[in-house]
Amino acid sequence: MCQKLRHERFIASPFDTVALTMGDRSHLEALAQTFVSDNLRQYLAHSAMGLDKVDDRRWKVVKAKEALRVYTERSQRDMARRARKHFAADASRVYTEDDETEYTVSELPVMFSAGTLVGGLDDVMFGVVNPTLELMRIKSSYVGDLGGAAVLATVGEPTLDDPFSSLVIKYMKMKLPLHTSGLVKNRDFVYMEATGVVQLGHGGDRIGYHLMHSVHFPQTVNRPHKVRGRLSVCSFFRQTSPDTVEHYSSGTIDPGGVIPRALLVRATAAQMLAPLRYAYCGQMKKLTWMLQQKREERQVGNGRSKLMTPDHVCVTCRSKAGNQFSSKCCVCLGDLCRSCSIKKRLSFLSSDSALVRCKASVCTACMLDGLHVSASRAARDQLFGASICSAYATSETSSDLSPSLDGVESKSMRRGHSVDQDAPRPHASR
Prior knowledge:
Layout: E1 2-4, H1 22-49, E2 59-65, E3 68-73, H2 76-89, H3 97-102, E4 110-118, H4 121-128, H5 133-143, E5 149-156, E6 166-174, E7 187-199, E8 206-216, E9 227-228, E10 230-241, E11 244-254, H6 261-272, H7 278-300, E12 327-328, E13 335-336, E14 342-349, E15 355-362, H8 364-372, H9 375-384, E16 392-393, E17 402-403, H10 411-415, E18 427-428
Helix pairs in contact: 4-7, 5-7, 7-8
InterPro entries: Rab4/Rab5_effector (IPR052727), START-like_dom_sf (IPR023393)
Protein name: FYVE-type domain-containing protein
């Protein structure tokens, strides 16, 4: 069954058009490169020592899931309390002024996450990159990392050489605990988002990156009932084994006003666990791309692809599959018995750009093909073809995915932005 989500959280833009000059674009590109380079050195230094080597006098775990942990820098009060406790336990230790300086921190929480993700680097990066409003909707449906967002301007788009590269100006909302009570206002952010892959030297490791750093434009005025915050977070991903990706992310979020530290830390920690779903997001986007490929093959062949099994016979186990509990693989259209049907919920965009979530059945062979198909190939293919997220129109009442191109928009209309040579330069806080 397909469900059309009518309450859309993603909008074209809540501001006047943010027009960028060529100077603005060059400035933003240089700024992003600087932040990525600085944070990459920090990540490599930490990785060389071991991501699990953490000074618990300075950092504490605030959230953990699977093989990923999120840490926050201890508050001044906590640091002082631990210092007094340690001093009492070891009276022979003499604390100098340098000792106090080393472990004194501000009340603005600095946080980082470290650990491993299951999957491949390209799948992770295919799940990360989302330079358009359509792809933001699709990503959020799998990852659940945004309460609402918009694309304000595009600086750089994916290319054939680097299908995971992008530099986009975005707006997002962050929902905080207790906001419904009126005690705490939700925050919003205007930021540049940069994604891509770098290589360490000739033939060295490939490392994916994801940068989010606050910027400001005259058009991005404060919105009613929201408090404008600032953020600077940079994440890295490196393949360490065929099914394991090392992950490291660090940064800070300024809430822009008084807020209990615990609430901010909790909300930020939840966001920093989002990478656990990146590979899955990339895999589901690949599966959607395979649907489009098979659909085009059937169009060229004037009908259904030839299957190796007869009708009403399960393509996986070869048992009878003609009863009311059977289904069809959404990729190859082969019959499936109830036991062999792999259920997935796929995301598409309807002709009116609303997000549609469809329950689909997949056979084992097509599922394995989807896992092993190249994410880079799928990402490159969508640069020149129809968007993988809108290549299928769906019906709210149909249990099948209905292949149609009604929901496909031209790339120029999806990504077009005007350029004003007299627009003011953007500002970023370092």
